[in-house]
Amino acid sequence: MRSIWKGSITFSLVSIPIKVFNAIETSEKIAFNQLHAGDCLGPIGQKKQCKKCDLTVTNDEIVKGYQHEKEKYVVVSPEEIASIAPESNEAIEIIGFIKPEEIPTAYFRRFLLRGSQRPGR
Question: Does residue 71 contact residue 81 with C-beta atoms inside 8 Å?
């Protein structure tokens, strides 16, 4: 499994390198399709050819779009994608701690259920 973030946790003058992984695997990921820009919005094949109108297209004529229904797409611009991307930060700074009793027990439920299902318990 590949890490989704690499960076460090810092506390005062101590810096600990870390990698963050997804806790669960998800099969539902958002994927964009390359589409022929303009009125057609046909999917682009490996040959950079529109599968809907059979025209060969250049990279300038390709846009990204999210398919929400069969043959229906919402075009997403690079500016829109950049506007929702989180700011990159390579360090998480710890500024304080809380008491364990301040954490709602709902956060422990999944851990406790998983721990009780281990073999030999």
Answer: no
Mean pLDDT along residues 26-54: 84
DSSP 52-114: TT--B--GGGEEEEEEEETTEEEEE-HHHHHHHSPPP-SEEE------GGGS-THHHHHHHHH
For 69, left (φ over 0), alpha (ψ -120 to 50), or beta? beta
Domain positions in the chain: 5-116
Q: What confidence tens digit (pLDDT) does each residue in 84-101 have?
A: 876 666 777 788 888 888
Triad 23, 91, 16: Cα angle to 5°? 80
Evaluate if pTM is beyond 0.85.
no
